[in-house]
Design goal:
Blueprint: E1 8-17, H1 20-29, H2 31-49, H3 52-58, E2 61-65, E3 68-74, H4 80-97, E4 102-114, E5 117-119, H5 121-134, E6 139-141, H6 144-151, H7 159-167, E7 170-172, E8 178-180, H8 192-211, H9 216-235
Parallel strand pairs: 4-6
Antiparallel strand pairs: 1-3, 1-4, 2-3, 4-5, 6-8, 7-8
Length: 245
């Protein structure tokens, strides 16, 4: 039995696979896609198995169910906001390589998170950010994260330096929302070739989905991703041959 007298203050992210219903529908007619989706879900499940050492060292918790992932860190752990955002970058880069898009919400607040038990106001807020605000293939970050991240800087950083590190992984969208800018974080991939391969995979996904004349809500998501993708390859990579017309 889990003993918990009160909520703890924790940074939390709730992420799930975008368009999971459509992915399931594809598996019915396509055996290769069935294997691809199964491998993807196995990858998500393995994230929890890899967390044992970090759980002892940093108080990190991971809960996985179906197509969703919840990760949290205690606020009192110095630098934990940065590490949580870095986790999101790595997950999105890994999933991008598989041609899978994710959407989520990252926030901070009162939370009970112990193994597969996760609940509290912060969980509700993260879920609402994912469901009602993220909309596109992005992980939205609540603005109160920034102030707390600076206050709880890692020992190696001043508050200003910590905030700069956090902001280096974020961008502000046209609607004023901060989100994890995983597409530009090529330095976090295993190597540059892996990063470029992942970009080609996501480029193919965007082109294929838009060429299928999707429903307006789906088209809106992929048009957003196309715009962001083109910005990255043109301004960061300078590889215009990847530009999607």
């Amino acid at each position: 039995m889990i003993e918990q007298e009160e909520y703890g203050e924790r940074f939390i992210v709730f992420i799930d696979i975008l368009g999971f219903r459509e992915h399931i529908n594809k598996t019915v007619q396509d055996s290769e896609y069935f294997i691809k989706l199964k491998d993807t879900l196995n990858f998500i499940a393995d994230l929890k198995k890899e967390n044992d050492a970090e759980k002892e060292r940093m108080g990190k918790e991971i809960t996985v169910f179906s197509d969703s992932i919840v990760i949290s860190y205690p606020v009192e752990q110095k630098g934990s906001a940065f590490f949580l955002i870095l986790d999101v970058v790595h997950i999105q880069l890994d999933m991008m390589q598989k041609g899978i898009l994710m959407r989520g919400g990252l926030t901070v607040g009162k939370l009970c998170h112990n193994d597969n038990i996760v609940y509290g106001p912060a969980m509700i807020k993260a879920y609402e950010l994912e469901t009602n605000v993220a909309i596109y293939p992005r992980v939205v970050v609540s603005q109160n994260i920034l102030e707390i991240a600076a206050i709880n800087a890692s020992p190696q950083h001043t508050p200003k330096e910590e905030l700069q590190w956090v902001m280096s992984m974020l961008d502000i969208d046209r609607d004023g929302q901060f989100y994890v800018d995983f597409l530009s974080q090529g330095q976090e991939a295993n190597d540059h070739a892996t990063y470029i391969d992942a970009l080609y995979n996501i480029r193919k996904l965007i082109v294929d989905e838009l060429s299928d004349d999707p429903r307006p809500p789906v088209r809106m998501k992929y048009e957003w991703l196309k715009s962001r993708f083109n910005t990255i390859v043109e301004n960061v990579l300078k590889e215009t041959d990847l530009i999607i017309e």
